[in-house]
Each structure stands twice: as structure tokens, then as C-alpha cells.
Amino acid sequence: MKEKEVIQGFSNNLNARNRKGVIWHIIFQASTLVGIVALIALMLNIVNSAFGYVAYEARVDPDTFTVDGVPLEEQNKEQLLTLLQSELSRGAYNKLNNEEPFEERSRENVFQLIVERIIRPKVVAVWDLWPSLTQVDEIRATVAQDFPTAELDFVSWLTYDFVTRPQTSEALTAGVRTAILGSLWTIFFTILLAFPVGVGAAIYLEEYASDNWFNRIIQTNINNLAGVPSIVYGILGLAIFVRTLEPLTSGEIFGLVDPTTANGRTVLSAGLTLGLLVLPIIIINAQEAIRAVPRSLRNASFGVGATKWQTVWSHVLPNAMPGILTGTILAVSRAIGETAPLVVVGASTAISFDPESPFSKFTTLPIQIYQWTARPQAEFQSLAAASILVLLVLLLSLNASAVLLRNRFSRRF
Amino acid sequence: MTTNNNPEPTYVIETQDLEIYYGTFKAVTDVNMKVEQNKITAIIGPSGCGKSTLLRAFNRMNELYAGTSIKGKITFNGQDIYAKEVDPVEVRYRIGMVFQKPNPFPKSIYENIAWTARIHGYKGNMDELVENSLQQAALWDEVKDKLHQSGLSLSGGQQQRLCIARAISIKPEVILMDEPASALDPIATLKIEELMQELKKNYTIVIVTHNMQQAARASDYTAMMMLSGEGERSGTMIEFNETKTIFTRPADKRTEDYVTGRFG
Amino acid sequence: MAELTDKKTSTISLRRKPRWGESIIQGLLFLSGFLSIFITIGIVYELGKEALLFFQMPEVDLLSTITSTEWKPHVNKFGIWPLLTSTLLTSTIAMSIAIPLGMSVAIYLSEYASPKVRNTLKPVLEVLAGIPTIVYGYFALTFMTPLLRQIFGNDTVQIYNTASAGLVMGILILPLITSMTEDSLSAVPRSLREAAYGMGATKLEVAVQIVVPAALSGIAAAIIVGISRAIGETMIVAVAAGAGPNFTLNPFIGAETITGHIVRISGGDLSYDSIDYNSIFALGLFLFLVTLTLNIISQAIVRRFREVYE
Questions:
Q1: CATH of region C84-267+298-309, choose from 1.10.3720.10, 2.70.98.70, 3.90.1300.10, 1.10.260.40
Q2: Separation of alpha carbons A178 and A184, rounded Å
Q3: A1 interaction partners in chain B (CB closer than 8 Å)
Q4: Which of A226, B13, C106, C192 has most Cβ atoms within 10 angstroms of its Cβ?
Q5: What CA–CA distance (Å, rounded) separates A362 from A348?
Q6: 3-state class percentages of chain B: helix first, strand second, coil last, to nearest 5
Q7: How high is the pLDDT of residue A355?
Q8: Nearest chain A residue (CA) to B129
Q9: pLDDT recorded at residue C11
């Protein structure tokens, strides 16, 4: 381009400006990359811990159970049952039989029981996935030298058994069933409280409330509550549900006190606490969904002489429902991942009983992750990683269903 | 195409068989025109016929919308402004623009001009430049006591003159004006038109307007655009001539219908 | 049909009829809305009540709480400073990561990225924002801490340290700052960008010198909400920052934040009426008031911003 005459001190600085533009473009792009890298590192770090080699030693040498030269692994179901009966106390044996009769159990199941209850392997060393893939020979050498009696196996800490077994203190046989059931029980009460109240409040604010100072306070208050740290809700739950309402939340007034629970630190208290926590989120999301229903629809309904509630119930709510449900699912996934308030409300540190009523003691998936993460041994970090994967799969499927819901119904108007 | 009494007119912007696309949709087709130096060229026509699109192509503003492209050629002082090596920033430095809706930056009146000059590396006396620009835009007397108030605090007409001051502060060769008075009241409109007559001594002006009286009053040349063909929704230039010819002896029947108000 | 004829022959009454069902429903809906007020009252009342009990205890006096640099409940020392400094330390580290990165990503998404890139990256941010904080805590302890120890040496960096917690908290807050900033950047009217481009500004000049200043109040609100989030964040510090109050500004040694302290104290079976029980209410009230103030400021800023552009 023809040079523009330099008038009154304008300098032709375009090259420098463009250079600066390119540099900052790279900086902005690199920042975005940092965010993506952080997400990838987070995921890889979890996967890295959830799989890998484990060296374990048996507390009781399986060779001592060799019968007539037949090693334990090759014995048939009858031989294994005899062994189980002789090594366990009668009470323990009968309890297992009550859970599932031995006649109906497979040989593999009985063998598994012998490993868990009699041989009781103990983890002596754990390797992450990356060294397990790249340094197999070194790992074998280390194990041969330091733990000559140990077995070395490549394991996935996340297995079907891991999801279905109850919590135990043994890393190799621990599971998250107790925690998953605890999470589900808790969330049930969360939804029971937050969904009807949240939608009700949203309907009130959008359809009924006139624009006066009191309703504006309610609205402002809801916005502020959404920003209150979750741990504060935990403290509130401790004061109200656990302490003040103890007769109710412990089941005392229903005569249903769980023998293991002497106070209000129950599934019910936890669920209600999380209910208060997600209530503002559900209200705000539901308000948005209700606001998106066009005015003309309401006018059509009023125009044929419907009352306010008839209009809301038959026209506004059905059309806003996909949006309300999407918002609720997102709020629920927030609740499922919450840890801090439940610690304060009083999640149990170690329980292996499945929750059976609203008045049971509880633990949840995030609580389980917290407790395993806080333990110094590497095998518990691996258990934490495996439970994180379970939690993330749960959350991801919830979010996916919310997205599906949104996409399916988003073209209504 | 142009009849001109000047023996050697200088043309600043020329187009050759210009077509402008939004994606695959051809918005403007077959435009050939020449913009003469230190004259006011008006582009008129019914709404939706591609006037603004054409104007924005002159300083490559249309590129800010994804998927726009052109065929044909636009030259500025003989040079193809869509050539590969040309920087659109440089084009817009030389060919300034005033928009339909006044859009001062949310900065002070002073900063609106100073920022513009500063990014182009202006090293001279800033106070002087601001005063000169505001004076050329006939705004100085009204704002000289409140230079550090927000540009948004001015009235619509004042805001638009601030935008003109901002545009001329960096001494472009051409100023493109996209219906600059359409959002203003008649008195503010009149001021802008008077200002244009003043500005054309130093600048070349291309103005898009839907107001035929304005084109007739203020411009030297007029380009008449219209949607062409049956069903085809593409704007084209049906006539380009001196303004007085367009308004008194139009060659095209459609132009005559439009300027006499019989259109549509 | 019969009904319609009846209606016509009988005298039509337009008088208002009581609709009891409607009134009851409206009452229930109002109660639902009012419950949120009750939550706030509950927080203030319960936390205030126990906090008052805390300060009435013979072992505690308000002055030494504000001035003392030791928080040792077992010897009745309740100076808030060690908890406060570590809270400020983790929050400062987090914000020094989250503000520049969050703004850069927001500018990139809003001003540079093509719609296709934007539509791919926004879900990534949503995924980051949806990951539970305990997972970030795990990440801090098992990834960031070893990384820091590798870089700065095992002698300098303790296993539990505020730097690791703060950095990961920065990653946690990044999506929040990004999405709020991006919202306010895209709310800047197109005409303003055009004005700047029309004057021959480059993309960077438009983005940084025109669009960002125009969205400044929205960005300020985002930053304040981010700070409030950082101060209230619990699980990352509970897992990675260390157990035990420590009056220090060294980011490489362990120190307990307000939230971390509450979690550790309430982890066991806390007996009511103990001084520990009361102390977490006092700390909780403090946390509530600080974050509430920050949120109110942020909302006030956003409201002013809306007045300018709508």
C-alpha cells in the first residue's frame, strides 16, 4: 500500500502493533491451553492411581491348605467349603450362609471368601499405572528382593466387585457399596425437600409476587444464599437438624431409632442439609425456566376464564418442566459431590452396614474419597482414585441426561 | 459511466464487477463505481438493497462478520485493498467510518479522540489535535468546558459529531458515513449536513442514506441501488451519475419512480 | 349444553367468588418463597447464638481473639490470625492464578475464538466447574504437592502446604471467573467494537483497550465472587493445606485455614457445649459475614453495570 504521508507526528507503527497483537494472541491461547492441560492432568492423575501393580503378602500361607498334594487353587467346591467351615467360627459361617446359602454359591465365590476371610492378603507395595507400564522389570526385581514371599499382580482398583462390596478396612477387599447407597439415600431426601419447595418458591416469585420491597428482599436473599460457602450450610445443619431436631432426625419420635445411632447424625439430617444447600440453585434455575414460557400462553389461558393456578398448573408448569428438571439435575449433581457440609453434619468415619432407613448412620461417596485420600498409604490413594472414577461416571451421566433433556425440549418456542 | 466536466478527475476508490457474499448468499452484485476525490458520493436505495454492505466493503468492515467474501475488485488509489498482502487495519486507518448509530467509546470526550490518535502512534501535541478535530467537527464550542466528561453524556447529535471528530483526528483520506443522521432529529441532521460540506474540502466522503432529500441537498454524485431481478434478492447498482442528473433526468425508470416517491 | 343454557337463563353473577383451593395453594407457594428468608435467619440466629456463647466463655475474650497470633484450643488460646493468614494466603495464591488465566481465557473465547472453537471449549469449562471439590483436593495432594516438591526440593516444601492447595484452588475458580468475565465481555455492544475497528484498531487494541474497559464492572464482580468462593472453599485445603493452625506466610509449609479448621474439628464426634463446638459457629459466622458482604458488593456492581447498557 502506498505510504501515507506522515502528517503531524503520526508514525507508521503498524508492524510493531501487529507484532504485539500476535504475542498477546499466543498468550490468550496459551492460557486456554493451560486450562485444558489442567483438566487432562487431573484426569490422568486419577487414572494413573486407579490401575497398576500391587505386591501383597498372605497373612496365612495358602500352601498350608494343600490337601493330598492338591493346591488350594485347584480344590473343588466341597473341599473349599470344608476348609471354610473349619477355619471360621460357627457364627461367622452361619452368617455367610444366611446371606446366601452355600449350595447356591459358585466355587469361585467360595474361593473368594477363603481369600478374604482366611488368607487375608496384605498390600506391601503399590505402583501407579505409568511405572507399571514402563518399568515392569524393575518392579519385579524390587519385589523379588524386598518381599520374597509377596505375589505381584497387575490390578484395576475399579472393578465390579469394588462397586458392589461393602466398605472394609482391608484395601484389597474394600468397596464403595455402602457409600453409594449412602449417597443415594441422602440425595433422595435432598430432592424431597428441595424440589417441591424450590419449584414452589420459583412459581411464587415469577407468577404471584408483586414487585414490592418484601418480594425483592426474598429475591435478593435467594441470590445471596447461592453464594454462601457450603460449609456454612453444614454448620446450620448441625445446629438445626442434628441438634435441635434430634428427636425427629434420629427417629426417636417414631420409635425407629437405629440401634447404632444414638443421635441425629443420620441420612435424613444429611439429606435435608444438602436440600437447603441446593434450594437457591433450584429456585434460580426454575425461575429462568418459568420466565421462558411466553406471555401469550398465559394470556390464552386467562382469556378462556382460567384461574391463576389453573393457568400455572396446566400451561406454565408443563412447558417449563424440561427446564426445571434440567436445572434440578444440575443442582443434584452439585449435592452429590458435596463433602464439607456432610463432614460437619457428622458423616461416619467407618461403617460397613448399608443404610437401611432415614435414621441410619451415613457415609457418602465424596466422604469415602476424603477419608481414603487422607490416609497416607498408597493403596488407599488408589482406592480414592477408583471411587473418584465412580463418582465422576455418576456425575457425568447425570449431566449428560440434563443436556439430553435440554436439547430434546429446547425447540418448543 | 460518469459524466464529468473536470478534465482530469482523481478517483480515490474504484470498484470493478464487485459482488459481495454472506456465505453463499449473494447480497450485492455487479457494482461498478468511482469515488472522486473531495466530493460527496451518496448511495441511495430502498432498505435491504445492500447499501450498507457495499459501504462496509470499502474499508473491509464486512470482514468482522464471519463468512463474508467478495468477488471482483475494489481499489484505493489504484491498489487492490483485498490483495493478500494488504492489512485491513491499514485500510481502515486511511478510510475512516462513521456509523448509523452514534457509538462513542465509554471514555471521556477527550479520550475518544486521544485513544484513536494514540493507537496510530501520534506523538504530537494531543491537546492541539483534540481541539482541532473537535473544531473541524463543529463540536468544540459545545464541549470545550467538559472535555473530561463521558462521551456518552452528550446528546445524540453531539455524539455523532464526536464520532466524526474521532474519525478525522487521524486524517483519513476517505470518510465512509453509514446513514449518519438517521438516528438524529432534523436540527442535528442539518448540522451534520453542513459539516459534510465543510469536510469535503479536505476529505472524500461516501455516504449511505435512505433520505433522498439529503442525497439531493448534500451530495455531488449519487449511486442508485435496488434489488435486482425477479425473485433474486441481490442488490445491484442500477444508475450512477451526478446528483443533479439523477434527480432531474434519471436514465432508469426505476430510479425515476424511486426519487419521485412512486416506488413500491 | 344444558349448563350453557342454564347460564344464559339464570342471572349471571360477576361477583367475586371465594376460591379456597386457590388461596391455600397461593399460601403454600408463598411459604416456599419465605423459607429462603428463614434459612438466612436460621444461619444468622444459630451461628450468632453459639458464637455469642463462645465469646461468653471464660477462656475466650474478644480482644485476644482479634489480636493474638496463636490458635490453640487445648490451651485456650483463640487468636484468629493464624487461621486468617492461611486463608488469605491460599486465596491470594488462588486468585493470582485464576484472575490472569481466567481473563485471558475469557478474552480468547469472546474476542478471538471461532464459534466452533468456542462451542468446544465451553463444555470443557463446564466439566471443570462440575468436578466436586474433593476431587481437586485429591489432585492437590497427589499431583500438585509432589510436583512442587520436585521443583523446589523436599526440604523446602512440606507434604502439606498452602501453595499446593492455593494453586489447585486457582484451577477450581478459573471456570467461574472465565464464564462470568466472558458473559460481561459478550454483553459489550457490537457497535463499540465496530467503532474501534473503524478507526483502524487492531484486534488486540479493540479487545484490551475498548471491550475490557467497557466490561470492567462485570469483570470486577467476577473477581469478587471468585474471592468469596476462594475464602469459603473447604475440601482442597482440608486435604492438602495441613492440619494445625500456623501463623506463617510461607506457602511451602502446612497451615490450617478457617474452613480447614472447621472440617477437622467437626470430623470427630463433637460434643455439644464444648468450646470446640462453639468455636466452629463463631468461625462459621465470620465466614458467612465475609462472603455475604463480598457477594452483595458484587451484585451491586453488576446492577450498576446493567443500568449503563440496557
A1: 1.10.3720.10
A2: 10
A3: 76, 79, 86-87, 90-91, 94
A4: C106
A5: 6
A6: 35, 25, 35
A7: 81
A8: A8
A9: 62
Q: At a CB cut-off of 8 Å and minimum separation 6, what does A362 contact? A: A182, A185, A186, A265, A266, A267, A270, A342, A347, A348, A351, A355
> Are residues A45 and C32, on separate chains, in Cβ contact within 8 Å?
no
Task: Name, in order, each residue with C-beta under 8 angstroms of C267's C-beta and a sequence gap of 6 or more.
Answer: A343, A349
Percent of chain C past pLDDT 90, that is, above it, reads 56
Give the distance from residue A59's alpha carbon to the nearest chain C alpha carbon, in angstroms.
Answer: 29
Confidence of residue A7 (pLDDT cuts 50, 70, 90): low
pLDDT level of residue A1 (50, 70, 90 thresholds): very low
Closest residue in A to C289 (Cα–Cα): A228
Query: In this structure, are residues C164 and C240 in contact, taking their beta carbons and an 8 Å threshold?
Result: yes
Of the candidates A1, A11, A18, the beta carbon closest to that of B121 is on: A11
All chains having 3 or more CB pairs closer than 8 angstroms to chain B:
A, C
Nearest CB among B79, B91, B121 relative to A13 is that of B121
- CB proximity A8 to B under 8 Å: yes
User: How far apart, in whole angstroms, are the C-alpha atoms of residue C184 and residue C85?
Assistant: 32
Amino acid, res. A205: L
The answer to whether B58 and B13 are in contact (CB under 8 A) is yes
Q: Is A4 or A394 the better-scoring residue by pLDDT?
A: A394
Q: In this predicted model, what pLDDT tens digit does every residue of A73-111 receive, in sequence order?
A: 778 888 888 888 887 788 878 877 877 788 878 887 787
- Dump pLDDT digits (tens) for A358-387: 888 888 999 999 999 988 888 899 999 999
C-alpha pair distances (Å), B124 with each of A220, B133, C236: 52, 14, 55
Taking all residues of chain B, what is their mean pLDDT, rounded to a whole number? 88
What confidence tier does A261 reach under pLDDT thresholds 50, 70, 90?
low
What is the set of domains in chain A, with CATH numbers? 53-162 (no CATH), 178-412 (1.10.3720.10)
In chain B, residues with a C-beta closer than 8 Å to the C-beta of C119 are none
The domain spans of chain C are 84-267+298-309
**Given pLDDT bands bounded at 50, 70 and 90, which one contains residue A117?**
confident
Are A14 and B124 in contact (CB < 8 Å)? no
| A26-40 CB burial, b ≥16 within 10 A, e <16 | eebbebbebbeebbe
C21 confidence band (pLDDT: 50, 70, 90): confident
Does B66 contact C at CB distance below 8 Å? yes
* Regions of chain B with pLDDT less than 50: 1-2, 264
Query: C202–B103: do the CB atoms touch at under 8 Å?
Result: no
Q: Do A201 and C35 touch (CB under 8 A)?
A: yes
CB contact under 8 A, C292 and A307: no
Which residue on chain B is closest to C192 by alpha carbon? B103
Of A123 and C3, the one with more pLDDT: A123
Do the beta carbons of residue A171 and residue A154 sit within 8 Å?
no
CB contact under 8 A, A14 and B90: yes
- Are C192 and B166 inside 8 Å of each other by CB? no
Q: Which chains touch C (3 or more CB pairs under 8 A)?
A: A, B
Asked whether residue C1 carries a pLDDT value surpassing 70, the answer given is no
Reported as type and span, the H/E element at residue A406 is helix A378-409
Which residues of chain A from 16 to 55 reach within 8 Å of chain B, CB to CB? 17-18
